Amino acid sequence: MIQVNNLCKSFTRVVKDKSDSKNKILKNKKLKTKKEEFLAVNNITFNADKGEIVGILGPNGAGKTTLLRMLGGILTPTSGDICVSGHNYALDKNAAKKEIGYLSGNTKLYNRLSPRELLTTFGNLYEMSNEEIEKSIEEVIKVMDMEKFIDNRIENLSTGQTQRASIARCLIHSPKIYIFDEPTLGLDVISSKSIIEFMKNEKKNGKTVLYSTHYMEEAETLCDKIVMIHQGEIIASGTPDSLKEETSTTNLRDVFIKLASERGELIED
Ligand SMILES: Nc1ncnc2c1ncn2[C@@H]1O[C@H](COP(=O)(O)OP(=O)(O)OP(=O)(O)O)[C@@H](O)[C@H]1O
């Protein structure tokens, strides 16, 4: 399982210095800029248990990718704790990362390799033996239905096949936890259905799936638990049914709209 406690990530961004506007008008100077810290992820706490699918929902810029990149070990948190199957990231990041299969939102694969060659490369990176790699590839081919294109060059695959190859790359070392950033984004119904079915089956196998999406209807039927974030903060978390009940709404889209507008915040989507 994965436990996240008081997680924060701040970035420095460059903004226009409004206090300099008088200068600009008077002397026709370019407005000065200044550096400012802002919290992209603000004090996030939740957990995802064995056999659970947890959906991270939120509009553009909510902080979903930043959160998942920290959980995937790509970004270092500014503060807070991440614990994966008993391994604390701050104390033993490598052990924690071995438990995770992380799919980033903009995964780029090596175009000139075939999925089989890609999976072999990643198996080697995880220090698996040749025999283990071959066995795992055979499993992954079955799970992701890749027989037809396992030896084709990645540059010749369709979008859906490429996404299946990207997910296959996350499975090669048999992790216990999957962290997927928008795995069904831009896919047609057939390709997204196969990925949704994959997540459902892995849940049955006792795996933990943590994934982000904009598709609230998809999350509503798939997820055991929802973590809704807006402007870096959790605005609600719980089962889809409990969130609807607490807000007297009938779907997750309305839950989000109601909670965000109660806070008087503009919705960016
Ligand atoms: N490396 C960075 N440096 C500065 N700001 C960043 C960086 N990465 C993300 N941000 C900012 O942090 C905020 C959260 O971004 P993030 O990509 O995590 O949101 P998101 O919920 O994944 O959005 P989307 O759904 O559009 O992908 C945004 O304001 C973004 O501009």
From TrEMBL:
Gene3D superfamilies: P-loop containing nucleotide triphosphate hydrolases
Annotated Pfam families: ABC_tran
SMART domains the record matches: AAA
Molecular-function annotations in GO: ATP binding; ATP hydrolysis activity
Residue stretches making up the ABC transporter domain: 26-256
Signal peptide: none
InterPro entries linked to this entry: AAA+_ATPase (IPR003593), ABC_transporter-like_ATP-bd (IPR003439), ABC_transporter_ATP-binding (IPR050763), P-loop_NTPase (IPR027417)
Keywords, ordered alphabetically: ATP-binding, Nucleotide-binding, Transport
Family classification: Belongs to the ABC transporter superfamily.
Protein name per its UniProtKB record: ATP-binding cassette domain-containing protein
Species for this entry: Romboutsia weinsteinii
Highest classification ranks of the organism: Bacteria, Bacillati, Bacillota, Clostridia, Peptostreptococcales
